[in-house]
Design brief:
It is a single chain. By secondary structure, the chain is mainly α. The chain folds into 2 domains: 191 residues, no CATH class; 79 residues, no CATH class. The protein is built from 13 helices and 2 strands; from the N terminus they run H-H-H-H-E-H-H-H-H-E-H-H-H-H-H. The chain starts with a helix and ends with a helix.
Length: 274
């Protein structure tokens, strides 16, 4: 009955339905962002500026590894040789607002996915909805894993490399607040989205745009693209690029098995209807 009603909906009705889902998403992000706004000390001192401090867990771990292998590294320095400053009158307030909204989006992500799923699910039959029941949980877990990876791996590697890089002793590193937060934001969100690769492949396979054979055939091309992507979101050193590339390659291989599972299931379904 629900599926019939969905099919009978006009294009404008679908747009109206989508509009209300988007309104709910925006409301959730704004509410979570408003709550985050009042935790300014924790968000900025602990989270945003955490990777700037050499007491950050990633630096300690990498310093211990470098010490064990007797390697020279900037990970064991007392502090990072750069300062963060605000050059415009409204920079700090603007950074506070947009950082709160970003925090609100991250916290509200499961609800965002839930609303998108509510928009899509009426067009599926009961069996398809049943098989996709774990979509919200899986996609949320993958996103949060990506966020954690971006924050604890990509962000400190980027900040340490760029913060200690110097072309001359005559030049001091004094980064603008917007630039620093932009680096943290890009690292976290990029990894969060990249970790959604298995979900993306699942739906591309469902609509017939991707097959496991296609993914296997283009594995080398995918590897090159992954390395390029790693070079874009990480500092230009081989070690950082490899660290980023490894989980993405693993996700790609997992996506192949997911695509194979979907195709196998669709084939069985087609055979039942023959």
């Amino acid at each position: 009955m629900a599926r019939k009603q969905v099919n009978e909906m006009s294009f404008l009705d679908h747009l109206e339905d989508l509009r209300w889902h988007l309104i709910r998403i925006c409301a959730a992000v704004v509410i979570c962002g408003a709550v985050a706004f009042f935790f300014k000390g924790f968000i900025f001192e602990t989270i945003i500026f955490g990777p700037k401090k050499m007491t950050f867990p990633t630096y300690k771990m990498l310093c211990d590894i470098a010490t064990y292998f007797n390697m020279d590294t900037t990970m064991c320095a007392a502090e990072l040789p750069f300062k963060i400053q605000a050059r415009k009158v409204a920079t700090q307030f603007s950074a506070h607002i947009w950082t709160s909204i970003l925090a609100g989006f991250v916290v509200a992500f499961p609800y965002v996915i839930y609303q998108l799923w509510r928009f899509i699910s009426p067009g599926l039959n009961p069996n398809e909805r049943k098989n996709s029941r774990g979509f919200i949980i899986v996609s949320s877990i993958l996103f949060f894993l990506g966020v954690v990876f971006g924050y604890y791996i990509i962000t400190p590697l980027s900040i340490n490399f760029l913060g200690t890089y110097s072309v001359s002793a005559e030049v001091s590193n004094e980064f603008d607040l917007d630039s620093y937060i932009g680096l943290v934001r890009a690292s976290v969100l990029a990894c969060g989205i990249i970790f959604e690769l298995p979900i993306i492949i699942y739906f591309l396979t469902r609509v017939g745009l991707v097959t496991p054979q296609f993914l296997r055939k283009n594995r080398k091309v995918a590897l090159v693209l992954i390395l390029i992507l790693s070079a874009i979101i990480t500092p230009p050193d081989v070690a950082s690029q490899i660290i980023v590339a490894i989980p993405v390659v693993i996700l790609y291989e997992v996506s192949i098995y997911i695509s194979k599972f979907v195709v196998k299931k669709e084939t069985k379904k087609d055979l039942k209807h023959v």
